[in-house]
Amino acid sequence: MSVDNAPAAAPQAARTGLNARLFGGAASLFPGYFALVMATGVVSIACHFMGLRPVALALIAVNWVAWPVLWVLTIVRAVRFRGELLRDISDHQRAPGFFTIVAGTCVLGTQNVVVIGATGIGIALWWFGLILWFVIMYTFFTAVTVRARKPTLARGINGAWLIAAVSTQAVVVLRGVIDVAAPPPEAIQFQVIAMFLIGCMLYLAIIPLIFYRLTFVPMQREDFSPPYWINMGAVAITALAGSILLLRGESWPLLIPLLPFLRGFTFFFWAVASWWIPFLFLLMLWRYVWMRDRFTYEPAIWGMVFPLAMYTTSTYQFDRAMGYGFLDLIPRVLVFVALGAWLLGMVGLLRRVSRVFRGT
Questions:
Q1: Secondary structure of residue 29 in the 3-state scheme
Q2: Neighbours of 257 (CB within 10 A)
Q3: Can you say how many angstroms the Cα of residue 296 is from the centroid of all Cα atoms in its chain?
Q4: Which of 38, 41, 315, 352 could form a disulfide with 111 if both were Cys (CB 3.0 to 4.6 A apart)?
Q5: What's the whole-number mean pLDDT along residues 222-250?
Q6: What whole-number distance in Å separates Cα of residue 165 and Cα of residue 204?
Q7: How far apart are CA 315 and CA 249, in angstroms?
Q8: Percentage helix, strand, coil, to 5, in the chain?
Q9: How many CB atoms neighbour CB 332 within 10 A?
Q10: Which domains does the chain have, with CATH numbers?
Q11: Per residue in 50-78, pLDDT tens?
Q12: How far is 35 from 98, CA to CA, in rounded Å?
């Protein structure tokens, strides 16, 4: 009897082990894992603009696997591991990662509209992203504000906080690429312009705290983690949002009186994004060369890939919006840097997933 049951027992044990790994993955899911979708989407858009269309199309396929899988894991976590989820929501270090859900959803929509012209998908994801923005934005800031015991600035703030600004501008960018042929209703124009300014406010309010943390509080090598690249990515997507609005300036009536202001503000944010890049590379050299830290895969690595691709796309659109024509070399070079970083991140992710399924 035991011999007859052995073949059935083995698949059952395999299924049990697989379920345990999947539930374990959901329980410990990093809230910012949707940065994978953000990074993949923006690299795809950058490749599309730079003439690497086969790569852009392949990355759409990757994102339509990653986005649903991450949603399934997030829903399982909300249903089966509610306590862990609620703890993350009020955690100053982990909670900002939830904004990647908004940004990833809107970047996926932008990717589909720009690369394959799927405007219907873009509109659906825009409305979904807008709803998510309201839910996550006010849940996050309320939770960290009313929390009884709060960390020090050194332990509580990092570059991930700026994903609040990124998610806001991602909503703006998606709407801007949807309404190219004709302007949206004036109520939507008004809402998009207001969200652009809210995104600017969030960056300008949060970045002084991060800059103070970097320059006046002692840092260990492990403190300088990939999310600090969002310092640049947040301002790059703000410059991209401003550039998109400038490109819609003649067709959106509510934008016309604001064009001089938008032009100067967009230039300001693009210049700030450019300033960050050498500084961030020097800090990476300090950590991995001078301090001899080992480079290993971590989920937050996508928070470094996204800004590199975003600066590439932002510079391309900024050059078009301002009518310069002499900045095109920057995106043509950086697209390969961003693509290389994405490939390294994907190799690390696939190795991590294979180890999980092998149970090592």
A1: coil
A2: 8
A3: 20
A4: 41
A5: 90
A6: 9
A7: 18
A8: 85, 0, 15
A9: 15
A10: 23-213+222-358 (1.50.10.150)
A11: 999 999 999 999 999 999 999 999 999 88
A12: 10
